[in-house]
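User: quick one, sequence for these C-alpha cells?
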C-alpha cells in the first residue's frame, strides 16, 4: 500500500503509483482544488495501529508538537516541508518521508517505508535515486 501525503503532481502520478500498489492520497497545498482522487486526511487502522495522513499545511508550518496536539493516532504521516523527519514521542510516531519527486529545496528525494508488525510501527527513510 502506498500512502501519499500530498503535493501529488497530477493524476498521472497516481496512475503510475497504482502499478506498484494500491494508493491512498491526501491533497497538498500545490494540488488542484476539488480533485476527487485526493482527500483532506486519512484515518486508517493498519495491523492494529491507528494511522493519520495529512499534508501538514493545515497546522501552518508543521512540527511534531503541532501534529501530536491536533491528531490522536499512533502514527502521524505528513509532507508539506519535504524535509525527512522521524520523531517518537510518548509511544507515538511522527513521520515526514521527504519527497519522492524532483529535487527541491536542496533536499534529496526520498520515501518512507512503514512496517507494522505485532501492533508496533517502525519506519525507515530510503533515498530515491
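Assistant:
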Amino acid at each position: 500500500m502506498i500512502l501519499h501525503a500530498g503535493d501529488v503532481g497530477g493524476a498521472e502520478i497516481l496512475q503510475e503509483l497504482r502499478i506498484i500498489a494500491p494508493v491512498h492520497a491526501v491533497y497538498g497545498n500545490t494540488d488542484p482544488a476539488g480533485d476527487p482522487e485526493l482527500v483532506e486526511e486519512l484515518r486508517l487502522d493498519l495491523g492494529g495501529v491507528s494511522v493519520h495522513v495529512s499534508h501538514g499545511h493545515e497546522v501552518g508550518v508543521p512540527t511534531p508538537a503541532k501534529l501530536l496536539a491536533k491528531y490522536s493516532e499512533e502514527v502521524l504521516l505528513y509532507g508539506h516541508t519535504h524535509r525527512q523527519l522521524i520523531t517518537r514521542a510518548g509511544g507515538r510516531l511522527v513521520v515526514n518521508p521527504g519527497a519522492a519527486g524532483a529535487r527541491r529545496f536542496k533536499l534529496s528525494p526520498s520515501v518512507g517505508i512503514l512496517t507494522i508488525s505485532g501492533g508496533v510501527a517502525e519506519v525507515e527513510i530510503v533515498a530515491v535515486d
